[in-house]
Amino acid sequence: MDDLNQSNYSLSASRPEEESPEEFTNPLPRAVLRMNSHALLDGEWHFAHDVEDVGLRDDWALSHTYAHRAQWPGSVEAHLAEVRGQQDGAAWHDKIVVWYEREFNLPEVAEPQPRSLIQLTFGACGYETRVWLNGKPLQTIEGEEVHYGEYTSFSYELDAENLHLVNRLTVRIVDTMDAETPRGKQESHVYKRGGIWYQTYTGAVRSVWLETVERNRLRSRVGVVSVVEDQLVRFNLTLRIHDAGDYTIRMQVFDPQTPNRTAPLAESDFPLHLEPGQWQQRVVMELPGAELWSPEAPNRYRLLAQLIDSEGYAAPIETLFGLRKVESRGRYVYLNNQSVYLDGILYQPGTATLEEMQRHMHAMKALGCNLVRVHIAGVDPRIYNLADELGLLLWVEVPSPHSSTPRSRENHRAELLRLVTLSETHPSIIIWSLYNEDWGAQDIATNPETRQYIVETYHFMQIAYPQFLVVDNDGWHHISNTGRLKSDLLTAHLYTPDLGRWKELLDRLVGGEMEGTAAFPLVVGDPFFYRRQVPLVVSEWGGFGFSDYGGPADAEARTNSIRAFKQELRQRPIAGDVYTQATNIEDERNGLIDPHTGALSVPEGLLASRLMERLD
After folding, report:
1. I want to staple 96 with a disulfide (CB 3.0 to 4.6 A). Which of 81, 92, 116, 179 is the partner?
2. pLDDT band at residue 72, thresholds of 50, 70 and 90?
3. Which family is this protein grouped under (predicted)?
């Protein structure tokens, strides 16, 4: 397969209006929709635990007798527990290898036509996934025989010559306790101070489906970059081409409230010649008078994008998008050129279902939050869509490895690229954290190679994804290089149940004291002089629910403490805060929201703040 081509930049005039296809809904876990037929392969699969890891050697993909059944989606842990007749998830150590298999009928989707093919997509699966169709190994569109990662989707194009009326799909999944792989807060061989790694939840964790797609098409990923002053919107597109030729990308933007979308607000064509392979292309459209997206007014527009071949055949995709601009400027964060205080909450969804996560999002909005920090976990893209709809800002993080090595950094970068490529459609996502509290970068204070990797990744994100703010290492040990902070925010994790101590810590923070504030020095590398150059964010505080923490024991006392601590935050030139946390999870019992029902244990609006006024 050809390598990705360098992005091109185009601007063209508008075309006359013409009728657009009718609106539709799509239940699949992705942000970008495709107007085609699809069939979910969720449900009962054959299942086997390959205890001795002999399945590859013994060609299980060609033939194997499966003694068990398992529901997809689901976790390896739950499936092992069912096999063993246990109530809770079954623990595993070092390495787990499992196989899944099922049949599907080709007419469930549609037989491929001359212009189309069948695509198989896994919403998320891993950490290592191999797939066979009728005993033949498949490669992802990116050319991977083994797909690595368990937080994002990946796809296979199915060869028509290998498709039958009845087909057998075989999947091998491997995971390990390897500390060099991105794990987030799931346990590994590395001991976490405090011992609060969570139980693993891996394997077939998201839906899998078949769909008909065009041979020459736009892939289901659209990046959106807007600079609100110039009334332009920049779309980053990915094209998949099998047949060389002349094509046109047609972009149409509609008001989502317009019935049947018969009158586009803007429309442009972009002619180009394409060779076989996968290509990236940037196109730019003018959208004068567009209403911006914000928490107070989450305005969105509907994009219909089509790849049209020389014979006029169109392959469409569509998505909702919003226009917004975020900046770290001086002491404050600016959204659409207006300073905004980030009323945040830490969110660790763990094994919550999609329906439970949707309840959580509504509850966090009800608490008065305008920001949700999704803590070192990849979530169903429909949650990002919901945040777009509700007007909730998102701070997302790369699931971290647990050790700092050249290989862990390679795996970290690959995970970052997978995540950001599939999430840059969403106006709600404004901040990315590369690391959290040194997890996966334990030697950040002593190893120049670790710092250099983070600095280079920070610079890469600034250039490739300017629509996001980037935090190098959240909580402490931010990096200074030649006196320049390599983070758009200076963040600190501050925990104390004592209000007097809280005031002291906040005063030290706003006074620019780099040591003696958080658990570790706030900046490493070379000297950095705060001088109110960057926004300060207390990105973790609270934790009042821990039984052994010394915090309030009942909901009323907790409410009063939260209110008092929040008032102290707002009396200082701080750009935002993130209360810890939204829901209870395993032994962390400090949530404000029932993890199942979404009910609040404190009053609505408790974490709300007004827009920050500039302080001279």
Report:
1. 92
2. very high
3. Belongs to the glycosyl hydrolase 2 family.
Amino acid at 526: D
* DSSP 8-state code for residue 192: P
Query: Dihedral angle at the C-alpha atoms of 24, 29, 32, 33, nearest 10 degrees?
Result: -30
Q: 469, 333 in Cβ contact below 8 A?
A: yes
- Dihedrals phi, psi of 482, to nearest 5 degrees: 50, 40
Provide φ and ψ at 69, rounded to 5°.
-125, 155
Q: Which residues contact 111 (CB under 8 A, 6 or more apart)?
A: none
Report the alpha-carbon distance of residue 214 to residue 577 in Å, rounded: 46
Measured at the CA of 580, the angle between CA 576 and CA 584, to 5 degrees, comes to: 150
pLDDT of the residue at 9: 31
Q: Which of 589, 587, 566, 588 is nearest to 578 (CA)?
A: 566
C-alpha 440/C-alpha 595 separation (Å) is 28
pLDDT (tens digit per residue) in 384-425: 999 999 999 999 999 999 999 999 999 999 999 999 999 999
How far is the C-alpha of 16 from the C-alpha of 13, rounded, in Å? 10
Token reading at 376: 């070192």
Q: How far is CA 363 from the centre of its chain?
A: 20
Report which secondary-structure segment, H or E, holds 85: none
CA angle 354-360-362, nearest 5°?
Answer: 110
Under DSSP, the state recorded for 189 is S
Query: Which amino acid, residue 555?
Result: A
What would the pLDDT profile of 166-199 be if each residue is shown by its tens digit? 999 999 999 999 999 999 999 898 877 666 788 8
Contact at 8 Å (CB) between 186 and 205?
no
Token duo for residue 298:
């989450």
DSSP-derived 3-state class of residue 479 = strand
- Identify the pLDDT of residue 158: 96
Task: Output the average pLDDT for the chain.
Answer: 91
Measuring CA to CA, which residue among 242, 224, 203 is closest to residue 282?
A: 224
Q: What is the β-pairing status of strands 154-158 and 116-122? A: antiparallel
